[in-house]
Each structure stands twice: as C-alpha cells, then as structure tokens.
Amino acid sequence: MPKPTVYVETTVIGHIAAWDQTDVLVYARQIQSRRWWAIRDRFDLVVSQVVVDECRAGDAVAASERLALI
Questions:
Q1: Rounded CA gap, 54 and 50, in Å?
Q2: Contact 8, 47 (CB under 8 A)
Q3: Cβ-based neighbours of 53, under 8 Å, separated by 6 or more
Q4: Residue 6: strand, helix, or coil
Q5: Spatial distance between the Cα atoms of 56 and 65, rounded to a whole number of angstroms
Q6: Per-residue pLDDT at 31
Q7: Which residues pair with residue 46 across a beta bridge?
Q8: Secondary structure of 37-62 in the HEC alphabet?
Q9: What is the C-alpha separation between 6 and 37, in angstroms, rounded?
Q10: Where are the domains of the chain?
Q11: Which of 31, 16, 22, 28 is nearest to 65 (CA)?
Q12: Rounded CA gap, 39 and 49, in Å?
C-alpha cells in the first residue's frame, strides 16, 4: 500500500531545527513537530521550492541545519 503524501511547510522544519523556545506555545509546537518528524517514514514527504528558499534564508549555520532536514 502506498504511503500518504504530505507537504511539509517551512514552519515545521523551523520548529524542528530551532533551539527550544521559552514561549510555551512555540515550545509546544516544537515538541509536536519533533514527534511528528520521528514518524515521518510513514509518509512520502514533499516540499516546494518556496520551502527550500525559505530554509536557505537567514543565519548560515541555522540555514544549513534546516536544509539538512529536507
């Protein structure tokens, strides 16, 4: 049976790659994103060129960490 296809948007990648945040809501999103990421092999993941471009932006070290995820 084929895996479901899931489009991964930039905020998911950002939540996974970012340092733990002190804002409770943001931290909760980070935890949920990381939990989902742990089971990502159940899905065929796709990203758009927009996501790639957004992940490249900003601090070079952080960008390389985001790009490594996709």
A1: 6
A2: yes
A3: none
A4: strand
A5: 9
A6: 98
A7: 7
A8: HHCHHHCEEECCHHHHHHHHCCCHHH
A9: 12
A10: 5-69
A11: 16
A12: 23
The SS3 assignment for 21 reads: coil
Q: What pLDDT score was predicted for residue 61?
A: 95
Sign of CA dihedral 1, 47, 7, 21: positive
| pLDDT per position as a tens digit, 4-43 | 999 999 999 999 999 999 999 999 999 999 999 999 999 9
pTM for this entry: 0.87
How much is the pLDDT for 70? 94
Q: Which amino acid is at 57?
A: A
CB–CB of 43/3 below 8 Å?
A: yes
- Provide the token pair at 52: 């790639």
